[in-house]
């Protein structure tokens, strides 16, 4: 489907039917910001841990902050750090981080029709896709409220960067991190994300079990980054196509 | 230096991943087999990440307080605690266990 949308000046109620007249845009945007505030609080705390752990692992403060500004993805940054800390060269670390962000490809495809303007403009708008905002902007049936998406993301980004700054400046010692249990933040965060994924399908459970088992086995022989990339073989179960439970809805759009 | 390369590469790659869908949509769709695999990359890798974080190289990092803390996280999530609260419960559990057994 090919919608040519007027991306137009703010006043023109030209487009789409999806976001409607300006006051609705504004409402969507503000609603997004409200949802985003909760997500931003979580991002802030996680970012503190990211910054502190990065310092502890020998990243410069500037590197950690730049990473948060440019990458703006907790799971990718944590994966990158976990892999690099495991002492496996840079390529597997990049691969692990990229693979975990591969989810943005289908998420971006889903949002695509709800964005406005030409390719380049849509590509830029697509940068607003982060997990929490994407969920918050979903209106059901594959339609997304883009202003809600923008609003939710726009409050998370500064929170993520600010949290990182606090983390690198505060940088507690390794001993203190352990005593306070802060080393649990990463695995706990990953586990929470994993639980959400597992709700999606039974195949996800198999993929996770395979991925976890392969990673655990590989850790005996290879550095962490390589073990992480190895874990992705679990995803190959997706080649088997649909889960039995999905088969009835064969004709998905 | 390698760190900067890694940061730049991941930043550029993430940008492209997010840009690709919105920019290309309308002209092509991903082949169905790849959609299934991509959807499962996240759970497979997240499980891998949990395992790597908990075990460490040659399983040398294994500390019993961490799995117990993670069970608390799962419990909290099952009781519908928000993610941040669940993580906090995990942290407090680990800290408490360590304080008690130190």
Compile the SSE list and pairings:
The complex is a heterodimer of chains A (253) and B (102).
Chain A lengths: L21 H35 L4 H10 L3 H12 L4 H11 L3 H8 L7 H7 L5 H7 E3 L2 E2 L1 H25 L3 H6 L5 H16 L1 H17 L5 H8 L22
Antiparallel strand pairs in A: 1-2
Helix pairs in contact in A: 1-2, 1-3, 1-7, 1-8, 2-8, 3-4, 3-12, 4-12, 7-8, 10-11, 11-12
Chain B lengths: L1 H23 L7 H24 L9 H14 L4 H19 L1
Helix pairs in contact in B: 3-4
Beta-strand proportion of chain B: under 5%
Q: In sequence order, what are the helices and strands of chain B, one letter per element?
A: HHHH
Main interface: chain pair and counts:
A-B, 110 and 73 residues
Alpha plus pi helix count of chain A: 12
- Global outline of chain A: globular
Average pLDDT of chain B: 88
Strand content of chain A: under 5%
Distance between the termini of chain B: 39 Å
Q: Cα-atom Rg of chain A, whole angstroms? A: 20 Å
Mind explaining what this structure looks like?
The complex is a heterodimer of chains A (253) and B (102). Chain A has 253 residues and is mostly helical. Helix content of chain A is 64%, strand content 2%. Chain A has 12 helices and 2 strands, in the order αααααααββααααα. Chain A has helices spanning 22-56, 61-70, 74-85, 90-100, 104-111, 119-125, 131-137, 146-170, 174-179, 185-200, 202-218, 224-231; strands at residues 138-140, 143-144. The radius of gyration of chain A is 20 Å and the shape is globular. The model of chain A is unreliable at 1-19 and 243-253 (pLDDT under 50). With 102 residues, chain B is mainly α. Chain B has a domain at 63-102. Chain B has 4 helices and no strands. The longest helix of chain B has 24 residues, at 32-55. Chain B is extended. Chains A and B meet through helix 1, helix 2, helix 3, helix 4 and helix 5 of A and helix 1, helix 2, helix 3 and helix 4 of B.
């Amino acid at each position: 489907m090919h919608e040519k949308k007027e991306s137009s000046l703010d006043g023109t109620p030209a487009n789409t039917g999806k976001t409607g007249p300006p006051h609705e845009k504004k409402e969507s945007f503000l609603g997004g910001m409200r949802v985003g505030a909760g997500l931003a609080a979580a991002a802030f705390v996680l970012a503190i841990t990211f910054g502190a752990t990065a310092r502890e692992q020998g990243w410069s403060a500037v590197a950690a902050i730049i990473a948060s500004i440019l990458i703006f993805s907790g799971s990718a940054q944590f994966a990158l750090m976990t892999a690099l800390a495991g002492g496996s060269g840079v390529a597997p670390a990049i691969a692990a981080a990229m693979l975990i962000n591969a989810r943005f490809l289908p998420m971006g495809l889903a949002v695509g029709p709800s964005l406005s303007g030409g390719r380049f403009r849509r590509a830029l708008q697509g940068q607003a896709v982060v997990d929490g905002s994407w969920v918050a902007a979903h209106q059901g049936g594959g339609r997304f409220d883009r202003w809600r998406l923008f609003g939710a993301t726009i409050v998370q980004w500064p929170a993520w960067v600010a949290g990182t700054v606090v983390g690198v400046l505060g940088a507690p010692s390794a001993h203190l991190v352990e005593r306070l249990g802060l080393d649990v933040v990463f695995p706990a965060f990953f586990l929470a994300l994993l639980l959400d994924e597992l709700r999606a399908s039974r195949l996800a459970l198999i993929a996770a079990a395979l991925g976890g088992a392969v990673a655990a086995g590989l850790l005996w022989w290879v550095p962490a980054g390589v073990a992480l990339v190895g874990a992705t073989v679990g995803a190959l179960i997706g080649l088997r196509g649909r889960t039995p439970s999905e088969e009835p809805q064969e004709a998905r759009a | 230096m390698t760190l900067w390369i890694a940061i730049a590469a991941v930043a550029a790659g993430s940008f492209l991943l997010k840009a690709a869908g919105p920019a290309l949509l309308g002209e092509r769709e991903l082949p169905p087999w790849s959609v299934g695999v991509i959807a499962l990359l996240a759970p497979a890798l997240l499980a891998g990440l949990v395992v790597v974080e908990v075990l460490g190289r040659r399983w040398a990092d294994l500390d019993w307080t961490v799995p117990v803390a993670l069970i608390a996280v799962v419990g909290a999530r099952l009781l519908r605690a928000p993610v941040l609260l669940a993580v906090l419960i995990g942290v407090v559990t680990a800290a408490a266990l360590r304080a008690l057994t130190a």
